[in-house]
C-alpha cells in the first residue's frame, strides 16, 4: 500500500542498502508452501479432493506425496500454529408470539429514548414496557432509574429474575429512533451479543418496544441485519491466543419482525453472509509468517472443494504467469522467498444457465515491506502490512458466502494475484521498467506503490474471461484514508450505472462508500519519459492517480469500478480486521443475479 507520506528519505534508502548487503543474491531457505500447492502448479480448472486440517485452523486439501505432506507440516516462522476455533453457530427463528410467553435465558428489549417516557403515575407509557414492568412488579422501572438508563445508543441494563419464563431481561438502547438502516440494525444485534456473552446465555429473544417504528418493507432487511450483527458480535478471533472464550449462545428468536418462509430464508442468508465476513476477517488477521501467498491460495482452493457443485479453482505458478506475460505482477513478487500464486475461482450456477458474467478482483499482498522504498518512520504502519491483502479477503469471503447461497443466472470470477513485496538482491528496484500482460510498460518510480502493479495483470486477466462488469478492491493508498477517514471506502468508476448498483448494495449491507472523481487531467503526472507510464504520481490526488493507473488495464467495453478500502479494512479500536467489503459484494452479485 502506498502511504500518504512523501517519497523515501535518504536514510530509508541507506537502511535498505544495508539490509541488501546482508542478504545473499538468492535466498536458499524458504518456508515451504502447503503440500497441495508444493506438489502441483496446474493452471487448469480442477475439482479438489478430500480435506485435511490446515495451519489456518480450517480444513484444506493435502498433497499426493509423502514429501509434499511433510513439507506442509513444516511450522511457520516462529513456530506459530493457529488453534482450530469454530466460529459461532447460532440458529435464528422469526416468531410472532407474545413476548411475555417466551422462555429462555435472556429477553432483550430494544428501546428508544422516547419509549422510556412515563405518565403522571411514573408508569411507562410504552405498551410493551408497561406490560413487562407490571409483570416484574416495577423492577424494570426501578432498574432503569437506578442505572441512569435513558435509551441512548450503546446503553444496556440487565436484570436477573426469578419465577419468570426467562432468566434475565435486558434493555438495549437504540437512541432517538428504531433502526431504519442496516447498519443500525446490525448494531442492535451486536449489542444483544454483548449482553448475551456477559450473561453466558445459551438462548435469547429480541423484541422491539416500538415495532411500529420500523417500516414494513424494511422488516426483512432489519431481521437479517440483526441476525448478522449478533453472529459478528459474538465472534472473537482467538486462533492466535493461548486461551479462547467459549461461545454459549446457540439460539436466538426474533419477535415482531414477521415470520414465515420468506423471513426464515433471509435469516439463513444472514448466517451464510456472516460466515463469509468471519472468513474474511480471519484471513486479514492472520500474520504474514502464517498466511503466505501459498497458504492464501490453499484457503481459496478450500472454498472450491467445499462447494464443488458451483466452484472450480485455478492456481497459476510463476512459469505459467510468465507465459501469460504478467511482468508487472512478477516484478513485485521477485524479491520474496515465498513464491507468488495467481488465484482464480470461478462460480457457475448448478443449472449452468448464465445470463451475466462478473469479475471481482482483490489485491493480495500478504505482506508489504515497501520494497526498496521501504516503509519507515511514524505512520508507515509496517507492522500492520499483513492487512495489505484485505481486498483478497473480501473477494474470498464473498466467494465463501455465495458458495452457500448459490445465486442463479450469474457467473462470477474471483481473481487474486497473491505475493509479497520484500527486499532482496532479486527484487525490483526504483527505476526498473516492467511490462504488463497487455503490453504496456511501467517505470517503477516507487516500489511501495506495488499493489497497482499486481492489479494491472489481474485486471487484464479478468477482462480476458469475457466478463461484463469488474469490481476491484484494494488497500491501495494512504491518500484515501486521509481523504475519507477510517470508516469509508473510496470508489472510482466511469460507469454511473455501476456506481448506482454498488450504492444500492451498500444500502443493504450498511457499509460506507463515497464516489471520488476520475480526473483525467491528473494523468499528466503519471507520464514517463522512457515508458508508457510511471506507477505513482506523487502526493497530490494520490488515490485518484492510482485509480487512473488501474484504468489503463481495463477493456473499454467492460464496466469497471475500483474500491480503495485502505481505511475500513482495519479497526484500530478492536485492533483487528473488519471483514469490510464482503457484505456489499455479496449483495451486488445477488442483485445482478435477480436482474439477469
UniProtKB/TrEMBL annotation:
Instruction: Give me any GO biological process, just one.
Output: proteolysis
What keywords were assigned to this record? Aminopeptidase, Hydrolase, Manganese, Metal-binding, Protease
Cofactor(s), names only, from the UniProt record: Mn(2+)
Molecular-function annotations in GO: manganese ion binding; metalloaminopeptidase activity; peptidase activity
* Residue numbers spanned by region Disordered: 31-50
Under InterPro entries, the record lists:
Leucine_aapep/pepB, Macro_dom-like, Peptidase_M17_C, Peptidase_M17_leu_NH2_pept, Peptidase_M17_N
Its recorded reaction(s) are:
Release of N-terminal proline from a peptide; Release of an N-terminal amino acid, Xaa-|-Yaa-, in which Xaa is preferably Leu, but may be other amino acids including Pro although not Arg or Lys, and Yaa may be Pro. Amino acid amides and methyl esters are also readily hydrolyzed, but rates on arylamides are exceedingly low
Gene3D superfamilies, alphabetized: Leucine Aminopeptidase, subunit E, domain 1 (3.40.220.10), Zn peptidases (3.40.630.10)
- Which intervals hold domain Cytosol aminopeptidase? 446-453
Q: Provide GO CC annotations from the record.
A: cytoplasm
Domain of life where this protein originates: Eukaryota
Similarity comment: family membership? Belongs to the peptidase M17 family.
How is the quaternary structure described?
A: Homohexamer (dimer of homotrimers).
Q: What does this protein do?
A: Presumably involved in the processing and regular turnover of intracellular proteins. Catalyzes the removal of unsubstituted N-terminal amino acids from various peptides.
Q: Please state what the protein is called.
A: Leucine aminopeptidase 2 chloroplastic
Amino acid at each position: 500500500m502506498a502511504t500518504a507520506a512523501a517519497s523515501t528519505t535518504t536514510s530509508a534508502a541507506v537502511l535498505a542498502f544495508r539490509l541488501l548487503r546482508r542478504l545473499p543474491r538468492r535466498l536458499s531457505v524458504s518456508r515451504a508452501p502447503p503440500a497441495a500447492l508444493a506438489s502441483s502448479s496446474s493452471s487448469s480448472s480442477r475439482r479438489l479432493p478430500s480435506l485435511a486440517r490446515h495451519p489456518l485452523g480450517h480444513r484444506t486439501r493435502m498433497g499426493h506425496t509423502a514429501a509434499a505432506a511433510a513439507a506442509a507440516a513444516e511450522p511457520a516462522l516462529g513456530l506459530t500454529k493457529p488453534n482450530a476455533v469454530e466460529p459461532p453457530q447460532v440458529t435464528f427463528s422469526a416468531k410472532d408470539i407474545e413476548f411475555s410467553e417466551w422462555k429462555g435465558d435472556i429477553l432483550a428489549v430494544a428501546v428508544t429514548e422516547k419509549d422510556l417516557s412515563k405518565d403522571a403515575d411514573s408508569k411507562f407509557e410504552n405498551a410493551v414496557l408497561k406490560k413487562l414492568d407490571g409483570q416484574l412488579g416495577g423492577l424494570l422501572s426501578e432498574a432503569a432509574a437506578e442505572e441512569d438508563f435513558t435509551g441512548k445508543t450503546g446503553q444496556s441494563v440487565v436484570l436477573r429474575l426469578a419465577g419468570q419464563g426467562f432468566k434475565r431481561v435486558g434493555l438495549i438502547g437504540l437512541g432517538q429512533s428504531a433502526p431504519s438502516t442496516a447498519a443500525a440494525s446490525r448494531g442492535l444485534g451486536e449489542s444483544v451479543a454483548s449482553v448475551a456473552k456477559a450473561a453466558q446465555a445459551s438462548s435469547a429473544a429480541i423484541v422491539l418496544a416500538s415495532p411500529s417504528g420500523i417500516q414494513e418493507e424494511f422488516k426483512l432487511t432489519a431481521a437479517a441485519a440483526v441476525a448478522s450483527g449478533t453472529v459478528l458480535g459474538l465472534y472473537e478471533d482467538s486462533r492466535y491466543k493461548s486461551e479462547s472464550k467459549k461461545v454459549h449462545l446457540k439460539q436466538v428468536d426474533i419477535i415482531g419482525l414477521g415470520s414465515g418462509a420468506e423471513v426464515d430464508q433471509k435469516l439463513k442468508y444472514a448466517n451464510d453472509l456472516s460466515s463469509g465476513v468471519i472468513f474474511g476477517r480471519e484471513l486479514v488477521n492472520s500474520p504474514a509468517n502464517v498466511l503466505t501467498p501459498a497458504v492464501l491460495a490453499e484457503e481459496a482452493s478450500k472454498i472450491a472443494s467445499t462447494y464443488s457443485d458451483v466452484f472450480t479453482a485455478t492456481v497459476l505458478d510463476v512459469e505459467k504467469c510468465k507465459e501469460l506475460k504478467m511482468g508487472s505482477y512478477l516484478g513485485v513478487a521477485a524479491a520474496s522467498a515465498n513464491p507468488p500464486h495467481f488465484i482464480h475461482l470461478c462460480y457457475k450456477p448448478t443449472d449452468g444457465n448464465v445470463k451475466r458474467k462478473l469479475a471481482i478482483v482483490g489485491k493480495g499482498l500478504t505482506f508489504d515491506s515497501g520494497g526498496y522504498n521501504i516503509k519507515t518512520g511514524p505512520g508507515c504502519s509496517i507492522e500492520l502490512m499483513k492487512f495489505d491483502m484485505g481486498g483478497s479477503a473480501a473477494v474470498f469471503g464473498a466467494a465463501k458466502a455465495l458458495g452457500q447461497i448459490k445465486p442463479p443466472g450469474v457467473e462470477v470470477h474471483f481473481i487474486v494475484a497473491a505475493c509479497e513485496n520484500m527486499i532482496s538482491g532479486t527484487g525490483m528496484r526504483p527505476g526498473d521498467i516492467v511490462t504488463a500482460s497487455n503490453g504496456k510498460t511501467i517505470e517503477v518510480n516507487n516500489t511501495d506503490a506495488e499493489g497497482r502493479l499486481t492489479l494491472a495483470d489481474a485486471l487484464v486477466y479478468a477482462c480476458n474471461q469475457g466478463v461484463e462488469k469488474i469490481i476491484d478492491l484494494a488497500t491501495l493508498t494512504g491518500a484515501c484514508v486521509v481523504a475519507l477517514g477510517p470508516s469509508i471506502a473510496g470508489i472510482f468508476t466511469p460507469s454511473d450505472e455501476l456506481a448506482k448498483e454498488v450504492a444500492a448494495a451498500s444500502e443493504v449491507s450498511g457499509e460506507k462508500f463515497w464516489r471520488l472523481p476520475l480526473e483525467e487531467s491528473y494523468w499528466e503526472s503519471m507520464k514517463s519519459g522512457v515508458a508508457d507510464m510511471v506507477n505513482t504520481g506523487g502526493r497530490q490526488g494520490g488515490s485518484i492517480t492510482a485509480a487512473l493507473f488501474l484504468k489503463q488495464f481495463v477493456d473499454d467495453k467492460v464496466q469497471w469500478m475500483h474500491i480503495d478500502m485502505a481505511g475500513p479494512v482495519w479497526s484500530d479500536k478492536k485492533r483487528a480486521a473488519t471483514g469490510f467489503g464482503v457484505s456489499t459484494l455479496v449483495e451486488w452479485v445477488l442483485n445482478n443475479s435477480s436482474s439477469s
